[in-house]
Amino acid sequence: xxxxxxxxxxxxxxxxxxxxxxxxxxxxxxxxxxxxxxxxxxxxxxxxxxxxxxxxxxxxxxxxxxxxxxxxxxxxxxxxxxxxxxxxxxxxxxxxxxxxxxxx
Length: 104
Description:
The chain has 104 residues and is an all-beta fold. It has a domain at 9-78: SH3 type barrels. 0% of the residues lie in helices and 46% in strands. The strands form 3 sheets. It has a 6-stranded antiparallel beta sheet, with no helix packed on it. Strands 4-5 form a two-stranded antiparallel sheet.
């Protein structure tokens, strides 16, 4: 079970976008893509067969998962994530600072 998943609200803790908040759009291994964070300019060549125009395209680049923290709305800050097994046997993610469940 991953600590950070698609759709989670996160805070960037280091790098050029430090302090920015966003939503995860994709998780690929140990890297995440966050909406409107780590935007880079990519010079692309036109591909008429695919209907793709050429030029400078802005897109989100992946960020390493260690450079983001899950946003805790109760504290308004980033928080570490732990796991807890409930009485009914389900394993849920919890905020380390408060012990409050994230998924339930």
